[in-house]
Structures are given as C-alpha cells and as structure tokens.
Amino acid sequence: MPIIFYMLGKYLILIGFVLILLGLFINLAPKIPYVGKLPGDIYYKKDNFVFYFPLTSSIIVSIILSLLLYIFTRR
Fold this sequence. Notes:
- There is one protein chain.
- The protein is built from two helices and two strands, in the order αββα.
- It is of the alpha+beta class.
- It has two domains: 1-32; 33-75.
- Strand 1 (42-46) and strand 2 form a beta hairpin.
- The radius of gyration is 18 Å and the shape is elongated.
- It starts with a helix and ends with a helix.
C-alpha cells in the first residue's frame, strides 16, 4: 500500500479528533468560568451598541494551539 494512504488516514483521524474537541469546547465553553471574561478582553457597551473583542482569550487560544501543533508536527 502506498505511503500516501497511510499519511492520509493519519491526518483524517487527527482532523476528526480536533473536530470532536472543538465541538466539546463549543458546547462546554459557557459553563467554564472566565472564558471570554479575562482581563484584557475589550468590552464596550453604549446605548444600543456593543463591541466585544476577546484579545486575551485569543492570545491564550493561540498559544495553546501553537503548542499542540508543535507537539504533533515535530519529528
């Protein structure tokens, strides 16, 4: 069997695992304290206008994803 099928299967399993984790996070995120309410997250509300930019949350998610990708892609 060519090596490409082995690699393709490996990546499909990894993508499926990531999608499962993402789905769990989306369903459980409202129950986790401080997600989206960290210091540094920008929240501005005035009359009928609301602006929300999760700066600190985005940085933390970026660091976690970078670490996971580093762990899974190193040889």
